[in-house]
Design goal:
6-stranded antiparallel beta barrel, 327 residues, 6 helices, 22% strand, OB fold (Dihydrolipoamide Acetyltransferase, E2P), 13 strands, Elongation Factor Tu (Ef-tu), domain 3, 42% helix
């Protein structure tokens, strides 16, 4: 065979390089619209701020609870004793306040009214005796000393009647305003103590704050639960999310609120989701220099929020496929 010209042999390597480069550009794979990810759950750990023995466990693993449903109950002592003591003190303080507001007892009021009638009768008698001795003194039948004693007796009777009337009026008014105010303040203070004691007792009987699934129970009935130690682990539907990692080349096409479709293996049912979080830094960065050729190896975390009615279908750790849709 005849050998190729020298000029052709020198050009062939460049032509081959150009062909490979052109193939690389023309055959570069386009970004996929579907990426793989997994389901993630943010758990709620239900605990009591007080320590105690677990006496009731109202839920079990896998159960669905509604908002307000009781979860577990610790031994009520000594909080229940403190609540009863505080309630008894409040009843005593309220009785004292009512007694101060209504004044003296009926028997005491009757005694004061009897004393008032006696003083009025004594004043009438003293007044008549003074008038009689004044007339006798004017005719020199009675001495001036007798007249003076009669006037003094009448004056004493008048003053005694005035004092008893004032005591009766005071008794009808009740206690002094400052005493009533002090009694009211005592009632308010003790009522606050009752509220605190009731709150402490209720903390030993936690309830679900929202609808959720019971992921796990960490104690058995009869065990001692330290203060603040979780007893029930809940997973609310609103806190089930999907996490995927997208390459840097796709990051610019995604925005918060973008719709997406989530699919799991073994079912044809699709779930709707929206982009709820986009990481602002690369999750995995290989040891390399950033350049146009290798920056596509960077991936970014994307979190998607599921609809509350569809979230219970998914389980944390479950692999899923996510397809992003344009708005």
């Amino acid at each position: 065979m005849k050998a190729a010209p020298h000029w052709l042999r020198s050009v062939v390597p460049y032509l081959a390089f150009a062909a490979l480069a052109g193939w690389g550009v023309g055959c570069r794979p386009t970004p996929r619209s579907t990426v793989s990810g997994y389901v993630e759950g943010e758990y709620v750990y239900a605990a009591a701020p007080q320590a105690g023995r677990l006496v009731h466990l109202h839920v079990q693993r896998g159960q669905t609870v509604e908002a307000g449903q009781p979860l577990f109950e610790l031994e009520p002592e000594p909080e229940s004793t403190r609540l009863a003591e505080a309630q008894g003190k409040v009843q005593g303080a309220r009785a004292t306040l009512a007694d101060r507001r209504k004044g003296h007892r009926p028997s005491e009021m009757s005694s004061l009214r009897a004393q008032l009638g006696e003083a009025e009768a004594a004043l009438v008698l003293a007044t008549a005796e003074r008038q009689r001795l004044v007339r006798l003194s004017d005719t020199h039948v009675a001495s001036p000393q007798e007249r003076d004693r009669a006037e003094a007796s009448a004056q004493q009777a008048t003053e005694r009647l005035t004092r008893i009337r004032a005591d009766l009026a005071t008794a009808e008014l009740g206690a002094r305003p400052d005493q009533i105010a002090a009694a009211e303040a005592e009632v308010t203070t003790l009522e606050a103590a009752v509220t605190r004691a009731r709150w402490e007792l209720e903390q030993k009987q936690p309830r679900a704050l929202q609808a959720a699934q019971v992921h796990d129970t960490l104690f058995r009935v009869g065990e001692w639960v330290p203060a603040g130690r979780p007893v029930v682990v809940l997973l609310p539907p609103a806190q089930i999310k999907v996490r995927v990692f997208v390459p840097e080349t796709r990051l610019g096409t995604l925005h918060l609120g973008d719709p997406a479709i989530v699919q799991v293996d073994g079912t044809t049912n699709l779930a709707n989701a929206t982009v709820a979080f986009i990481a602002n830094h690369a999750e995995y960065t290989p040891p390399m220099l950033y350049s146009r050729d290798n920056r596509s190896q960077l991936v970014y975390l994307i979190e998607l929020a599921l609809r509350p009615e569809e979230a219970p279908r998914f389980h944390p750790g479950q692999p899923v496929d996510v397809t992003f849709r344009p708005r």
